Amino acid sequence: MFNKTSQAEISPESPSGVQTEHAETQDTETVNGAAEPESTSAGVPPAGEDWQAKAQQLQDQFTRLAADFDNYRKRSREEQESMVKYGAQKSALELLPVLDNLERATASLTENSDPQVLYKSFSMIQKQLLDGLDAMGVRKIKAIGEPFDPQFHEAVNRMPSAEFPENSNMYEAQSGYQLHDKVIRPAMVVVSTGNPDAEPADLPSAESLQAEAENRANPFSQA
Protein backbone atom coordinates (compact mmCIF):
# COMPACT_ATOMS: atom_id res chain seq x y z
CA MET A 1 0.00 0.00 0.00
CA PHE A 2 2.80 2.43 0.81
CA ASN A 3 4.45 1.98 -2.57
CA LYS A 4 1.27 2.46 -4.56
CA THR A 5 0.34 5.54 -2.67
CA SER A 6 3.75 7.02 -3.29
CA GLN A 7 3.61 6.30 -7.01
CA ALA A 8 0.11 7.78 -7.24
CA GLU A 9 1.16 10.94 -5.46
CA ILE A 10 4.30 11.44 -7.49
CA SER A 11 3.13 10.51 -11.01
CA PRO A 12 0.57 13.32 -11.44
CA GLU A 13 3.10 15.93 -10.44
CA SER A 14 5.99 14.66 -12.57
CA PRO A 15 4.68 15.83 -16.00
CA SER A 16 3.72 19.15 -14.53
CA GLY A 17 7.15 19.53 -13.00
CA VAL A 18 8.89 18.64 -16.23
CA GLN A 19 6.71 20.98 -18.22
CA THR A 20 7.34 23.76 -15.73
CA GLU A 21 11.09 23.30 -15.90
CA HIS A 22 10.95 23.12 -19.70
CA ALA A 23 8.89 26.30 -19.86
CA GLU A 24 11.26 28.11 -17.52
CA THR A 25 14.19 26.97 -19.67
CA GLN A 26 12.48 28.27 -22.82
CA ASP A 27 11.64 31.56 -21.13
CA THR A 28 15.23 31.93 -19.99
CA GLU A 29 16.54 31.18 -23.49
CA THR A 30 14.05 33.58 -24.98
CA VAL A 31 15.02 36.32 -22.57
CA ASN A 32 18.71 35.70 -23.07
CA GLY A 33 18.32 35.55 -26.83
CA ALA A 34 16.42 38.80 -26.87
CA ALA A 35 18.86 40.49 -24.50
CA GLU A 36 21.91 40.02 -26.71
CA PRO A 37 20.73 42.17 -29.65
CA GLU A 38 19.62 44.91 -27.26
CA SER A 39 23.05 44.89 -25.53
CA THR A 40 24.86 44.93 -28.90
CA SER A 41 22.87 47.83 -30.30
CA ALA A 42 23.16 49.84 -27.09
CA GLY A 43 26.82 49.30 -26.07
CA VAL A 44 28.90 48.27 -29.12
CA PRO A 45 28.66 50.21 -32.42
CA PRO A 46 28.25 48.24 -35.66
CA ALA A 47 31.38 47.36 -37.63
CA GLY A 48 30.67 49.97 -40.33
CA GLU A 49 30.54 52.87 -37.89
CA ASP A 50 33.76 51.70 -36.19
CA TRP A 51 35.69 51.78 -39.50
CA GLN A 52 34.26 55.18 -40.35
CA ALA A 53 35.53 56.57 -37.04
CA LYS A 54 39.00 55.12 -37.63
CA ALA A 55 39.07 56.49 -41.18
CA GLN A 56 38.10 59.94 -39.92
CA GLN A 57 40.83 59.77 -37.26
CA LEU A 58 43.46 58.85 -39.87
CA GLN A 59 42.23 61.61 -42.15
CA ASP A 60 42.61 64.17 -39.35
CA GLN A 61 46.14 62.95 -38.62
CA PHE A 62 47.08 63.15 -42.29
CA THR A 63 45.69 66.69 -42.53
CA ARG A 64 47.74 67.81 -39.53
CA LEU A 65 50.92 66.16 -40.88
CA ALA A 66 50.41 67.78 -44.29
CA ALA A 67 50.00 71.19 -42.66
CA ASP A 68 53.12 70.69 -40.51
CA PHE A 69 55.17 69.60 -43.53
CA ASP A 70 53.98 72.61 -45.55
CA ASN A 71 55.02 74.96 -42.73
CA TYR A 72 58.41 73.22 -42.47
CA ARG A 73 58.96 73.58 -46.22
CA LYS A 74 58.15 77.29 -46.07
CA ARG A 75 60.53 77.83 -43.15
CA SER A 76 63.32 75.94 -44.93
CA ARG A 77 62.86 78.00 -48.08
CA GLU A 78 62.93 81.25 -46.10
CA GLU A 79 66.08 80.16 -44.25
CA GLN A 80 67.82 79.28 -47.53
CA GLU A 81 66.86 82.60 -49.09
CA SER A 82 68.10 84.44 -46.00
CA MET A 83 71.38 82.51 -46.07
CA VAL A 84 71.95 83.39 -49.73
CA LYS A 85 71.05 87.03 -49.17
CA TYR A 86 72.91 87.62 -45.91
CA GLY A 87 75.54 84.86 -46.05
CA ALA A 88 78.32 87.38 -46.67
CA GLN A 89 77.57 89.33 -43.50
CA LYS A 90 80.33 87.70 -41.46
CA SER A 91 82.87 88.22 -44.25
CA ALA A 92 81.86 91.84 -44.62
CA LEU A 93 82.34 92.44 -40.90
CA GLU A 94 85.86 90.99 -41.14
CA LEU A 95 86.76 93.41 -43.95
CA LEU A 96 85.12 96.58 -42.67
CA PRO A 97 88.05 97.45 -40.32
CA VAL A 98 90.37 97.26 -43.33
CA LEU A 99 88.14 99.68 -45.20
CA ASP A 100 88.13 102.00 -42.19
CA ASN A 101 91.94 102.15 -42.12
CA LEU A 102 92.09 102.61 -45.87
CA GLU A 103 89.73 105.56 -45.63
CA ARG A 104 91.87 107.10 -42.87
CA ALA A 105 95.04 106.62 -44.90
CA THR A 106 93.45 108.11 -48.01
CA ALA A 107 92.19 111.13 -46.06
CA SER A 108 95.68 111.80 -44.73
CA LEU A 109 97.41 111.65 -48.14
CA THR A 110 98.83 114.86 -49.55
CA GLU A 111 101.28 115.75 -52.30
CA ASN A 112 103.98 116.17 -49.65
CA SER A 113 103.33 112.88 -47.85
CA ASP A 114 106.42 110.99 -46.81
CA PRO A 115 106.83 107.86 -49.01
CA GLN A 116 108.04 105.89 -46.01
CA VAL A 117 104.88 106.75 -44.10
CA LEU A 118 102.77 105.74 -47.08
CA TYR A 119 104.64 102.47 -47.39
CA LYS A 120 104.13 101.62 -43.73
CA SER A 121 100.45 102.58 -43.88
CA PHE A 122 99.67 100.45 -46.89
CA SER A 123 101.77 97.57 -45.56
CA MET A 124 99.71 97.65 -42.38
CA ILE A 125 96.48 97.70 -44.37
CA GLN A 126 97.65 94.79 -46.50
CA LYS A 127 98.50 92.73 -43.41
CA GLN A 128 95.16 93.54 -41.84
CA LEU A 129 93.38 92.50 -45.01
CA LEU A 130 95.26 89.21 -45.16
CA ASP A 131 94.45 88.57 -41.50
CA GLY A 132 90.77 89.20 -42.19
CA LEU A 133 90.81 86.82 -45.14
CA ASP A 134 92.62 84.23 -43.04
CA ALA A 135 89.88 84.47 -40.40
CA MET A 136 87.39 83.57 -43.15
CA GLY A 137 89.49 80.61 -44.26
CA VAL A 138 91.00 82.33 -47.32
CA ARG A 139 94.75 81.74 -47.60
CA LYS A 140 97.33 82.70 -50.15
CA ILE A 141 98.80 79.89 -52.24
CA LYS A 142 102.57 79.50 -52.10
CA ALA A 143 104.05 79.93 -55.53
CA ILE A 144 107.62 81.26 -55.90
CA GLY A 145 110.20 78.47 -55.60
CA GLU A 146 107.49 75.80 -55.31
CA PRO A 147 107.25 72.94 -57.81
CA PHE A 148 104.64 73.67 -60.44
CA ASP A 149 101.33 72.03 -59.52
CA PRO A 150 98.42 72.49 -61.95
CA GLN A 151 96.04 72.09 -59.04
CA PHE A 152 97.31 75.32 -57.47
CA HIS A 153 99.23 77.11 -60.23
CA GLU A 154 98.44 78.37 -63.71
CA ALA A 155 101.45 78.72 -66.03
CA VAL A 156 101.44 81.87 -68.16
CA ASN A 157 104.95 81.36 -69.55
CA ARG A 158 108.02 79.13 -69.38
CA MET A 159 111.50 80.63 -69.26
CA PRO A 160 115.05 79.37 -68.64
CA SER A 161 116.59 80.12 -65.29
CA ALA A 162 119.91 79.37 -63.63
CA GLU A 163 118.44 80.17 -60.22
CA PHE A 164 115.39 77.92 -60.19
CA PRO A 165 115.39 74.24 -61.12
CA GLU A 166 113.32 72.92 -63.97
CA ASN A 167 109.54 72.80 -63.49
CA SER A 168 109.58 75.20 -60.55
CA ASN A 169 107.86 78.57 -60.31
CA MET A 170 110.22 81.47 -61.05
CA TYR A 171 107.88 84.30 -60.10
CA GLU A 172 104.26 85.08 -59.50
CA ALA A 173 102.33 87.28 -61.92
CA GLN A 174 99.16 87.13 -59.82
CA SER A 175 98.56 85.69 -56.38
CA GLY A 176 96.35 82.68 -55.94
CA TYR A 177 94.02 81.90 -53.04
CA GLN A 178 92.17 78.93 -51.64
CA LEU A 179 89.14 78.79 -49.37
CA HIS A 180 89.89 76.11 -46.79
CA ASP A 181 90.78 73.14 -49.04
CA LYS A 182 89.22 74.53 -52.25
CA VAL A 183 91.21 76.59 -54.77
CA ILE A 184 89.14 79.64 -55.65
CA ARG A 185 91.84 81.23 -57.83
CA PRO A 186 95.09 79.57 -58.94
CA ALA A 187 98.34 81.50 -58.82
CA MET A 188 99.53 82.75 -62.22
CA VAL A 189 103.21 81.87 -62.49
CA VAL A 190 106.13 81.65 -64.88
CA VAL A 191 107.70 78.20 -64.80
CA SER A 192 111.43 77.61 -65.08
CA THR A 193 112.83 75.32 -67.74
CA GLY A 194 116.19 75.10 -65.97
CA ASN A 195 118.72 75.36 -68.82
CA PRO A 196 121.99 74.89 -66.84
CA ASP A 197 124.13 75.46 -69.95
CA ALA A 198 123.08 79.10 -70.32
CA GLU A 199 125.13 81.90 -68.85
CA PRO A 200 123.58 83.45 -65.72
CA ALA A 201 123.99 86.95 -67.16
CA ASP A 202 121.81 86.01 -70.13
CA LEU A 203 118.89 84.89 -67.97
CA PRO A 204 116.49 87.22 -66.14
CA SER A 205 116.49 86.94 -62.37
CA ALA A 206 113.41 86.20 -60.34
CA GLU A 207 113.65 89.59 -58.65
CA SER A 208 113.65 91.50 -61.94
CA LEU A 209 110.71 89.52 -63.29
CA GLN A 210 108.79 90.00 -60.06
CA ALA A 211 109.45 93.74 -60.04
CA GLU A 212 108.38 94.04 -63.66
CA ALA A 213 105.11 92.21 -62.97
CA GLU A 214 104.38 94.32 -59.89
CA ASN A 215 105.01 97.54 -61.79
CA ARG A 216 102.57 96.53 -64.49
CA ALA A 217 99.87 95.69 -61.94
CA ASN A 218 100.58 98.56 -59.51
CA PRO A 219 98.37 101.61 -60.15
CA PHE A 220 100.65 103.82 -58.04
CA SER A 221 103.68 103.12 -60.26
CA GLN A 222 102.34 105.54 -62.89
CA ALA A 223 102.01 108.44 -60.43
CATH class of the domain at 139-223, named Mainly Beta
CATH architecture of the domain at 139-223: Roll
Q: What is the CATH topology assignment of the domain at 139-223?
A: Nucleotide Exchange Factor Grpe, Chain A, domain 2
Arithmetic mean pLDDT: 76
Shape: elongated
Radius of gyration: 50 Å
- Could you give the distance between the termini? 161 Å
Describe the structure.
- By secondary structure, this protein is an alpha+beta fold.
- Among the domains are: 86-136; 139-223, Head domain of nucleotide exchange factor GrpE (Nucleotide Exchange Factor Grpe, Chain A, domain 2).
- The chain is 60% helix and 13% strand.
- The chain contains six helices and six strands; from the N terminus they run H-H-H-H-H-E-E-E-E-E-E-H.
- The protein has helices at residues 2-10, 13-43, 47-86, 89-108, 115-135, 206-217; strands at residues 138-140, 153-159, 169-174, 177-179, 182-185, 187-192.
- It has a three-stranded antiparallel beta sheet. Strands 2-6-3 form a three-stranded mixed beta sheet.
- Helix 4 packs antiparallel against helix 5 (115-135).
- It is elongated.
- It starts with a helix and ends in a 6-residue tail after the last helix.
- The model is unreliable at 1-23 and 28-41 (pLDDT under 50).
